[in-house]
Amino acid sequence: MESISASRKKIGCVRQENACLTLQDEQLISDLDAMQYEMATSKSQVYLRGPRAGVHNNVVVMSEQIRQLEAELEAQAKELKAAELRAECCQEAAAHSDIVVATLTEELSTLREELENKTALGKRAEQQRNQALENAEKLKEAFKDYKATISIKLKRVMESENKLKGSLIECDREKEELEMKCTELERQKAEHRQTISQLTEEVKQFKAAAARLQAQIEEAGHKASHLERQLMERGAECRDVASLRRELEDLRAVTHSQEQKVAQSQKEAQLSQTELAGLEAILSLLHLREGTLGQICASPCMLPPVDYTGAAHLMKLKPGEGYQQLMRVLQSKEAERLKQSNLIERLQDRLSRAQEEISSLQSSMAQRASHYQSLHTELLDKLKQATDTEKELKKKKARVAALEKQLQEKTSAYSLAALKNTELETQLQEKTSSIQHYQSLLTKKQREYQQSLEKCQQSHSHQFTEQQQRIQMLQLSLEEVHPLVAEMEQELSSLQRERDEAQRTALLLQNSLDQLTQEKQVEVRQNEEFLQSFKEQAARSAAKVCELQSSLSACRKEMNSYLQQIEEMKKNYETELERNKEKVQCW
């Protein structure tokens, strides 16, 4: 871009130099026309005064004429003196001499005037000749300088053309680089679109996973509430079981005490049987004495051998009292035995019932333990699922963080691209303003050049008409001044050729400048279109990025809330598991 501005500045400098050269050409042409006019006037005056003198020997002829006139004046003065002497001599010829003197004085005055005019004309001719020579020398020097300056300017123009070519090549390279950048930006835009679509799909997946997690959390909450209810029920059942266990222990203690009592009662029964056997033996002995008593024992022979030491004190009693006491004792023993048998039956019934209840409780406890184990396995599976979901969430968080970093990098790249676009826009605006300025300058200079050309053409036409008139008037003097005119025509033709060449170069430069301006305008339009498309794409991408950021922030909030809920549920599950473990361990 700097090379383009430099090339445009150089083009402006070349145009200014071309304008200066055209002005110098016009001045030279006007000077040549003035010189031709002065030469023509001087030639016409010399031709009117007399064809005796040429252009180059006018001064010599005029000096000779002046000398002749001075000699004539001296002779006439001598004649006047002679005439005065003669007048003094003769008064008759006085009138005639007065008339002759008057005529002579008139002729002298006319001759003096003619001499003064001729001297003035000679001086003017000398001055004009000197001026013409000086002007010719100046024109030669100016022509040489003009040739040198034109050659230098042509070299500069060639150098500027080469530089312009280089700048155009650089502009083409910059254009290719901009096209490459545009393709890269389009590719990045496509990648951004793909990433945005992927992010939207992932956001949708996150939302679906969050909905699933929320449904699972709700199901887990329902299950937890159901488990809490079951735990409450099972706590009540456990309390019942504990109370039943206490009752069983009490029953066992009672049964143990009753078994001890039964053992004691059996021992007492054995003792009583032994005593009964002894008593029966005593009764058998007494039967012989009394004779009318009924049988006490139907099968006394079935009794074991009796130790009769315990019943020795009965031998000391009276026969009727001992029997009555024995009957009382036997009745009381039978009543106690019946009571104990009833108690034993009742205790056996209660033991059977308690054993049935214990077996049912053990089966229910086994079922509940299996159920608790299944619940424990389910909770472990849910914990594994929760850990897996946490790992997936962590991975997705890492991916989201990486995507956020990529989005930040891409937003920074978009911001840099926007800044570059703004810089390019400013540069384009500056270049468009400079191009407009140069175009205005070109239009102004073209108008000035056209006006100057019109003026030159008009002046040339007027000069041509005047020259034709002068040529018609000076055809006689052209024979003498023909070589000078030929030289001047050659110089004029060479100057006209150089002027035509300069005009051609100026036209070529103007055409090249017009082509460059058109190409630059096309490039500026293309760049403006590219910039507008980039602006639209940047605005769309910025809007999409804002939407994605808002959706990501909402997803983050939802994920954070879901994570908090999951952590709370995990804590609740862990506490419940610990409680259940403690309860199971207590059982």
UniProtKB/TrEMBL annotation:
<feature type="coiled-coil region">
    <location>
        <begin position="485"/>
        <end position="519"/>
    </location>
</feature>
<feature type="coiled-coil region">
    <location>
        <begin position="330"/>
        <end position="413"/>
    </location>
</feature>
<keyword id="KW-0963">Cytoplasm</keyword>
<protein>
    <submittedName>
        <fullName>Coiled-coil domain-containing protein 18-like</fullName>
    </submittedName>
</protein>
<keyword id="KW-0175">Coiled coil</keyword>
<feature type="coiled-coil region">
    <location>
        <begin position="552"/>
        <end position="583"/>
    </location>
</feature>
<feature type="coiled-coil region">
    <location>
        <begin position="59"/>
        <end position="268"/>
    </location>
</feature>
<dbReference type="GO" id="GO:0005737">
    <property type="term" value="C:cytoplasm"/>
</dbReference>
